[in-house]
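From the pipeline queue, job 12 of 40. The input is one protein chain; the requested action is below.

Action: predict structure.
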Amino acid sequence: MRVGLFGGSFNPAHEGHAHVAETAMHRLKLDKVIWLVSPQNPLKSSHETRPLAERMAGVRRWARGGGMIVSDAETRLGSQYTIDTLRVLRARYPGVKFVWIMGADSLATFHRWRGWTQIMREVPVAVISRPWAALKARTSPAARRFAHARWPSSAAAILADATAPAWVYLTGPLNFASSTALRGRQTKG
């Protein structure tokens, strides 16, 4: 089984997140995409993070279609960091081929994540293009450090079969929805 793991705070979830998940599902030929709703992003203020139940409900509205699963696994595992979650999931499900999914905006700051180099060595990673993030993502410390492990987008369908480190940057139609912009509108409105 080929499973994409799409983690985030989804604060709030929006059509851009759905676009990333759906793009990954199709281009990577995944059987499932699990949206891992983080209890609290360690790089963001807890003051602006909505309650988990509210964010889970928001994700359920966007995670539509066969193979999309919404999970609070990180909360249940007591995991705050992606690297810890990946290690637990890989140990529990050794026959599953996992791929970490992220938007290009996340790759741009990936070097700030705890254990980011270990994440790259733990599972293949798929980066989906996001507006305004392409240059920052492609020149980010993570992209430079793992340039040798970047696969061409034409090989995306077999990325799940790769031995990490392996990653791909997928371009295509862009979706301009943004959690930051949505939060800003809600604050003003």
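Job complete. The first helix runs from residue 15 to 27.
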